[in-house]
Specification:
Layout: H1 2-6, H2 11-49, H3 51-59
Length: about 80
């Protein structure tokens, strides 16, 4: 087992790389989770300011009216 951890003398290069990679991955996961929490908070505030949008989104209704200035033609 000691041979595995020593890695034929390359342990000083390999193990810090593993630690740095795991540290970066942990930072990325935590950063993403905190960003998601902040975005949900902003969304809740926006829905509080415009409740008609929240109701429409919750009911699953879609706006089927075309955008102003657009026309469809079969010509």
């Amino acid at each position: 087992m000691a041979e595995f951890f020593a890695m034929d003398g390359y342990a000083w290069f390999v193990w810090p790389t593993y630690v740095a990679t795991l540290g970066f991955m942990a930072w990325l996961a935590i950063s993403t989770w905190r960003g998601l929490k902040a975005d949900r908070k902003v969304l809740a505030e926006l829905e509080k300011d415009a409740p008609h949008r929240a109701r429409r989104r919750e009911s699953g209704a879609t706006d089927s009216t075309p955008l102003s200035g657009t026309q469809t033609s079969d010509a």
